């Protein structure tokens, strides 16, 4: 499992972070989406990012994934600076991300969806695949077992042969999560994983996220609107407003922060 | 007995290559049986069905599995055909036929890398435009280099004599002398079977899975570690290589490589064959090729029987083809194979009992062969909703019953 090796590798001061953004600024044609944002995800913890709509949460995620190249600032992973990060590098770096819009592959089955997520564990080359060598078949079986195990863990194994479009939204949501987990990342980026879920599903999601971080040492970066979920599962929270970090700390600290109350929570916590 | 069945089913689901080879072998038997029982003229038609099938198979991988459109596959076939013609220019040409085909594939593959690299950056109509340019430009090259490529007249292709071992083998197996047309039909169909086995292998592997992922959602595929450009180029190159093999077989069949054989119509025809049969399905590509080859003939004969003049009857063929095309697109947008398989899957999904693990796995070959002609090279790549996907894992089969 990747988590243990990664966290043990560099116990140095900065080496300990699963992901660190330092002084990240992004602007889109004059609009400052992010201004000098710092954020550090400690290994094995759940780090929440909250903020009102348009605060820059998704941009922050996109920077962490290489979709958006920051104008300023650096991204570090396990103490090493990631220059020229591209989205396809994530899997190799032990990172996985879910998308707000799910982004499931609609014309293949649920199982195949998860298999794509597990692809980073495969080594079969093009020629081996072309010739259908036994090695390819063996690896394929191993991948399938792995994918089925993840589907079972998320209670959606019974949908393995179905096509995503025919499934209810909460199930699709789980499939998307299964696809991310199948890569066995040690850093998981969840973009609004609870949106569209009912109370029960949300509770289960919270339990899952906590068990991932506590029992398996997976670090989680979480963007979420549902305050109760964020407050329950996060070890640390960063609050953004208009592209700036206005607060960070434990849920309790953030909850009582006057700046946060003013900017965001005030209306809800009241 | 039950244990044996389970083991057989396990082997069937476990060995992808074994399964494809078995279907290929069955296909070969059918090819021999059909080819031996029809006339020389029909054998040449069979050969042209085969080369169209090879090209359509390559195109269905590109369009059906990877979502790229190509209007230039006729041009890629031309490259394979001209390579073949240049290597087989007279009776003394000593290059063995397999090497000639290999050379045609390699040359087309190299061109495919160049075109694919450009295509990987383009989408939808832009990609169609770029490949359209290819379709228009390549025959022009043959006209420009008159000396080397024969201009409008094209290059004659001299098919080497049938090797004695082939004559002996054919006589031994069938008890008939091997005619040249039959030899050409065997060559083309053998090439088709090899190509389809390789394409089916790819489609079933992680390579094919990544192609589909890129087709369905680029962003999600990229996040899963798929390199979009590389995946697109590889699909294009594979597809081009198949077109090269098809071109070589076309040259051998019609014994000529001339610009008039590789007009834009050929490219469009291939695309229509793929759509008719069902995008992403090799069996569909084959059905499409069969329709292309035999439908005009059948319609013309029917027209003559109905009392039309020869010319009138011949004019009927494109009309009927067009009507078939429109009907398929309107009534069965997943193509022939996609629609049939969707219906089979729905029915099986309703009736399959949850415990039927082994029967589920064993039921797959019957469905896949019943929907396709027996020369199909294996369970086909699924592209449209309702295509077969995972008969392999027993867990999948069990779950199908329990969820429905």
From TrEMBL, chain A:
<dbReference type="InterPro" id="IPR032823">
    <property type="entry name" value="BCA_ABC_TP_C"/>
</dbReference>
<keyword id="KW-0067">ATP-binding</keyword>
<dbReference type="Pfam" id="PF00005">
    <property type="entry name" value="ABC_tran"/>
</dbReference>
<dbReference type="InterPro" id="IPR027417">
    <property type="entry name" value="P-loop_NTPase"/>
</dbReference>
<keyword id="KW-0813">Transport</keyword>
<keyword id="KW-0547">Nucleotide-binding</keyword>
<dbReference type="Pfam" id="PF12399">
    <property type="entry name" value="BCA_ABC_TP_C"/>
</dbReference>
<protein>
    <submittedName>
        <fullName>ABC transporter ATP-binding protein</fullName>
    </submittedName>
</protein>
<dbReference type="GO" id="GO:0005524">
    <property type="term" value="F:ATP binding"/>
</dbReference>
<dbReference type="InterPro" id="IPR003439">
    <property type="entry name" value="ABC_transporter-like_ATP-bd"/>
</dbReference>
<feature type="domain" description="ABC transporter">
    <location>
        <begin position="19"/>
        <end position="267"/>
    </location>
</feature>
<dbReference type="InterPro" id="IPR003593">
    <property type="entry name" value="AAA+_ATPase"/>
</dbReference>
<dbReference type="InterPro" id="IPR051120">
    <property type="entry name" value="ABC_AA/LPS_Transport"/>
</dbReference>
UniProtKB/TrEMBL annotation, chain B:
<feature type="transmembrane region" description="Helical">
    <location>
        <begin position="270"/>
        <end position="299"/>
    </location>
</feature>
<keyword id="KW-0812">Transmembrane</keyword>
<feature type="transmembrane region" description="Helical">
    <location>
        <begin position="126"/>
        <end position="145"/>
    </location>
</feature>
<dbReference type="InterPro" id="IPR043428">
    <property type="entry name" value="LivM-like"/>
</dbReference>
<feature type="transmembrane region" description="Helical">
    <location>
        <begin position="46"/>
        <end position="65"/>
    </location>
</feature>
<feature type="transmembrane region" description="Helical">
    <location>
        <begin position="12"/>
        <end position="34"/>
    </location>
</feature>
<feature type="transmembrane region" description="Helical">
    <location>
        <begin position="100"/>
        <end position="120"/>
    </location>
</feature>
<keyword id="KW-0472">Membrane</keyword>
<feature type="region of interest" description="Disordered">
    <location>
        <begin position="348"/>
        <end position="404"/>
    </location>
</feature>
<keyword id="KW-1133">Transmembrane helix</keyword>
<feature type="transmembrane region" description="Helical">
    <location>
        <begin position="183"/>
        <end position="202"/>
    </location>
</feature>
<feature type="transmembrane region" description="Helical">
    <location>
        <begin position="319"/>
        <end position="340"/>
    </location>
</feature>
<feature type="transmembrane region" description="Helical">
    <location>
        <begin position="71"/>
        <end position="88"/>
    </location>
</feature>
<feature type="transmembrane region" description="Helical">
    <location>
        <begin position="233"/>
        <end position="258"/>
    </location>
</feature>
<dbReference type="InterPro" id="IPR001851">
    <property type="entry name" value="ABC_transp_permease"/>
</dbReference>
<dbReference type="Pfam" id="PF02653">
    <property type="entry name" value="BPD_transp_2"/>
</dbReference>
<protein>
    <submittedName>
        <fullName>Branched-chain amino acid ABC transporter permease</fullName>
    </submittedName>
</protein>
<keyword id="KW-1003">Cell membrane</keyword>
<feature type="compositionally biased region" description="Low complexity">
    <location>
        <begin position="351"/>
        <end position="404"/>
    </location>
</feature>
